[in-house]
Specification:
- The chain is of the alpha+beta class.
- The chain contains 6 helices and 5 strands; from the N terminus they run αβββαααββαα.
- The protein has a 5-stranded antiparallel beta sheet.
- Strand 2 and strand 3 form a beta hairpin.
- The N terminus is likely disordered.
Length: about 130
């Protein structure tokens, strides 16, 4: 999140964090100020039943993903607390750089680990 570094550092200094764990393929979990906090992907939301517990939020998350955003689900003490919409932006220099590479005969492809909708959104025009 561009420009959020300072806010994250202040929050981290203000919270007591323990028992941090990576949830492979899903996200992460920790105890924050004595509360169980989980953040992660749609896979985590599905496993925890969060999608069904808040249909309006699930519909919004699905629309965000279709539009190319990455959704980060947040749960506190086992209950869905919300979702974050995260988006990448293309560098201003990307279209020119890819055009120059193509002009040199380089086959340019875009690979992403995000959801299917984010690739067309972040790919430079052909």
């Amino acid at each position: 999140l561009a420009g959020s570094g300072a806010a994250v550092r202040v929050a981290a200094k203000s919270c007591a964090v323990a028992d941090f764990a990576i949830l492979p393929g899903e996200g992460a979990a920790a105890t924050v100020d004595g509360r169980a906090v989980e953040v992660g992907s749609s896979a985590l939301a599905s496993r925890r039943g969060w999608r069904g517990s808040d249909p309006a939020l699930a519909a919004a998350a699905e629309a965000w993903e279709k539009a190319g955003a990455t959704v980060v689900w947040v749960g506190v003490d086992g209950v869905v607390a919300g979702a974050l919409r995260c988006e990448d932006s293309m560098r201003a220099s990307a279209p020119r750089a890819t055009a120059l590479l193509r002009a040199m005969g380089v086959h340019v492809v875009m690979l992403t680990g995000d959801n299917r909708g984010s690739a067309p959104r972040g790919a430079p025009p052909r």
